[in-house]
Amino acid sequence: MRRNIVIAAVTAAALIGGGTATALATTGDDDRGTAPRADVSVSDDGGVRDEADGQGDDAAGERDDRDDADRVSSAKVTAAEAIAAALRETPGTAVSADLDAADDDGDDDTDGDDRRERAAWEVDVLAGDGTWHSVRIDPGTGKVLGSHRDGDEDDTAEVRAALKGTSVDAADAARAAAGKGTVTSVDLDDDGDDGDGRAAWEVETRTDGKGEQDWRVDPGTGKVTADRSDSDDSGSDDSGSDDD
User: Fold this and answer.
1) Could you give the C-alpha distances from 56 to 21, 31, 36, 66, 101, in angstroms and in order?
2) 3-state secondary structure of 124
3) Residues 191 and 104 sit within 8 Å (Cβ to Cβ)
4) Alpha carbon separation from 173 to 56, 63, 117 (Å, rounded)
5) Average of pLDDT values for 60-80?
6) Mean pLDDT throughout 90-94?
């Protein structure tokens, strides 16, 4: 009974004062001592908050990192090979390639099987007639898992203008950056978001000990440089200005 009164009093004080109070439970008579502090508190809105929630978030983040590492290490098909396979399925210009964990849209032509649940390379292709297509490639075998036409894109003209007169395509950019680690994505920055106003291929790699790193590949020369905007955001500068 005494324990219930204490908890009710503390909870009421928290609700009236608008603050956060921690409930301490006592067991039996006073001479039996106080039980360990419970990891539960009353929030400003009267709800109950488990103070171990943050630890759960950290654990989930660590699991995601491990899943990413496992997915990368198990991929036998490189980004360049996936792009080549996608272009055999749908001729055109590959604009991006990403190693995805699973297909979220469920639009693949998978004949009702579970292939869309697999990790896969997702390659976006701009066909010669201006239509956009998404092709999924099995990272273990290089086979086409599915393909569908995407909706009209507003940046078709920008993409074509950015690549006009260039000699380095998405597959070339992936091969150029492969010396930095395992390539997990290639995307065209067609409007120079890096601040220099010049188009470039943005390539993400993953390596043991360094995690994910971002690079820019010049579509005219194939030169690989560290993504400065990414370095600035992280507070560190991986200066691998790299003249491979």
Assistant:
1) 22, 36, 21, 15, 22
2) strand
3) no
4) 38, 30, 28
5) 68
6) 97
